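Hi X.,

You mentioned you wanted examples for the new student's onboarding notes, showing what a folding record looks like when two proteins sit in one file. Here is a clean example. The first protein comes first, with its sequence line followed by its C-alpha cells.
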Amino acid sequence: MTFFLLLLALQSPADWLAQAQKHFQQQQWSASREAARKALAIDPKLGDAHVLLGLVATVESKFAEAEAEFLQAVALQPANPRAHAYLGSTYLQRKKWDDAARSFEQVLKLDAGNLSAHYNLGLIALTRNQPAEALARFERVYRAAPNDVEALIGMLESQLLLKRAAEARQTAAMLGTLVDSRDPRLFQAATMLGLYGEYAAAIPLLERVRKAHPESYDAAYNLALAQYQASEYDRAAEELQALRTAEAYNLLGAVEEKRKRMGESFEALKKAAELDSRNEDFRYDHATAILLYREVKDAVASFEAAARDFPRSWRLRLGLGAAQYLAGNYDAAVQALLDAARIEPEARPVFRLLGLTYETAPAMQPEIAKAFAGYLKRRDDDAWAHYHYGAILSMRARAGEEVAQEAKTRLRRALELEPDLAVAHMEMGVLAQATGDVATAVQSLERAVKLRPDLATAHYRLGLAYQKIGEKEKSRAELALFQKLKAASEESERILVRESVVSSEPRR
C-alpha cells in the first residue's frame, strides 16, 4: 500500500468531508477542495463532496467547473433538492435559462415550499419577458415571507412591466417601510420606478437616499431627473445647480426651458457642451439652442463643427440641414440631409425635412426623389414620406412626366395611414386640378382647409378651383384668405423646420 493510500485509510470519507466543510467555512478554498477530493478518492459516490467542490468553484467564479460538480452531485443524489438548487443557481450564473428553470422545477417537485426556487423561477420569467408568470412567483414568496425585500423588488418590476401602476405604487410604499435609507436596494427600487415613468412614487424614495448619502452624485442627479419628469422644475433646478457637471448642466438647460428662463437654459446647455465636448448629445443640444435662440449663421457653424467631430451622427447632420435651410443655403441643406439619410436610412425626421427642400434645390431634385423611393421601400408606414414623395411626383407630372398615377397612389397611401393629413388632401386637389378634374379638386381642397384653416396654399388653390366653376364670391374670399395667411405660412414653415430638429432630441 502506497503512503498516500495508507494516509487515506487512516481517515474515513466522512472525516475528510468534515475537514473540507470546516476549511470552506474558514474560506480556505484550496484546503477545502483538497479534503473533498480525498473523500471522493475513498468513496467516489459521495455526492456531498461534489456539492462542496461545486461551492468552492462557485466562490472562485469557476462556473463551468461548478456546473460539472453539481451535475455529478444530482446524478448521485437525484432526490437531494439542495444539489438541484445549487445546479440551478450555477445555470443562472451562466445564463442558461432553460436549464436553470428545469433545475428549480425539480427542486419544487422535491420540496414544494422552497421559496428560493420560486424566487429564481420568477427571475427566469422576467428574462423570458413573462411578467405575469414572474409576478405569481414573487407573490408566492411574499405571502410566505412578507419581509422579503428581494421578492418585493421582483413584484415591483413585474407590476411595472404589466402596467399595473396602482399596485406598483403600493409595493413601492411597502418597500419604503421595510428598507433602510442607506440600503442600496432602496435606490434600486426608486431607479426602477423612474425608468418606468412612476416619478411621483420614485421621488420620496430618492429623497431618503439623497438625505442618507449627501455625498452621492448619483442620488442627487437621479432625484433631480425624477423631479424634472414630474414637472417639479424649481426643486430640480436647486439640485442641479449644486452639481456642476456637464450632465447636470445639460439637464439644467431642459429644466430652465420649462421654467421659461431661455437665457439661463442657453447658458446651461453651452456650459455642458464646453465641459464635455466629446458628448454628442450635449453638442447637439447646444447647437439646437443656438438655432432656436441665437443667429442662424452661428447655428450653422456650431452644427458644422459638431458634425466634423462626430462623422457618424445623423442627428447632427439633420440639425445642420435645418440650419442651412433657414440660412437660405438650400443645396448645402439638401446635402447635409442626404448625408444623414445615408448614415441612418430609416430616420423619419430626416425625410420629413428633406421633403420641404425639394423645390428649393433644383439641381439636387433627382437625388432627393431617389432617396424617398429607397426609404419608402423600407418604411411603407410613414405617412409624411408618402405625402412628400407624392408631392414630388405630382410636380413632375405637372411638368409633363408620366407619373400622375404613381403620385395618386403615394398620396392615397399617405391618407390611408393618416386620414386627416391636410397637406395630402391639398396635394390630391392640386393634382386633380392639373388633370382637369375640378370637382375632385374642390372636394379635396375643401377637406384640406377644413382640417388646416391656416394652410395658405390650400386656400390659394381652392380659390382658383372656385374660379373655374364660376363661384366668384367664394374664389375672392379664398384668395383674400391666402393673402392674409401667406406671411404667417412662411413663418410656420420656419417653425416646422426648427421643430424637426427639436423633436429628434433624445428625451430625458
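Then the second protein repeats the pattern, sequence line and then C-alpha cells:
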Amino acid sequence: MVKTVCRDIILLKRKAEPATKDDKQIAIDLLDTLKANEAGCVGMAANMIGIPKAIIAVNMGFVNVAMFNPKIINKSEPYKTSEGCLSLLGVRDTVRYKNIEIEYYDMNFVKQCKKYSDLIAQIIQHEIDHLDGKII
C-alpha cells in the first residue's frame, strides 16, 4: 500500500528499531511508496513513511530492493556531494563513500553480504543515515 511521505523532523530524527521477519508488510508498503514516487526518489527508509523500523528500499536501476537491518561493514574512497530528500526541502552537502560493503536481510529474511559502488552505494548510505536518525 502506498503510504504518505513523512516530513516531520522529530519523527525523522528518531533512531529505527531492528526489523524482524514479521515486518515484511512494512517493506512491501515501502517498496510500493518508492514506486509511486519514482519520478523524484531513488530510495526510502521506513521512517520516511512514519515507521521507525530498520528497513530501506533502494532503486537498483532495474528493480527496487528492500533491505532489513542494513549495516555498512566496509567503506572506501570518501567524496563530497550534495543530496536532496523526498522528506526534506532543499539540498544538503555531505560526505559519502564510493564503495561500500553491507550486510542485511532480504525479503525472505536471509542474510546477505554485498558490495555496491557509485550511485547505488550513495543511495544506501543516505537511507542508512535515515535509520540512524541522521538528517543531512
